Amino acid sequence: MDATTDKDLLVQEQIYNALCYLGESEPEEILNSCDEYLRQHDKLAYPHRVIILKAMETVVKSNIALLDKSTAKEVIRDWQQAASNVLVAVGQRFINKVMEEVLTKFQPGILPHYFVMQTFANLSVSNGE
Question: Which residues form the MROH2B-like N-terminal HEAT-repeats domain (predicted)?
C-alpha cells in the first residue's frame, strides 16, 4: 500500500485495482489490512488516503452480504472517520467548498449523522484563527 504515494497515476490506479481484486477473495482480510495501514499512517496525505478509502468502499459494496456484522460495523466506523479526516484536511484550504458539501447532508426533520457533526466540529477547530 505504500505505493499509493507514487506520483504516477497509473501506479495509484494499479494499487486500487489490486486491493479491489484481492478484496473479492478475502474481503475481511483486505478491509482489516487497509484499516490497519490507515491507522499506522495517520499523516498520509489525503489524495493517497482516498485511494485506499475508495478501494475499501468498493470491497464493502461488492461483498456486503459476505461480511461479518462486527467487521462491517468496525469498517464503516473507521471508514467514516477517515473520510471525515479527509474533508477536514481539504477544508484547511477549501473551507467554503467543503462546508457547501457537508451542508447538503442536513435534511429538514432528520438528525444529522454523528460524523457530519464531528466533521463540522473538526473543521471549526482546524480553521479557527
Answer: 19-127
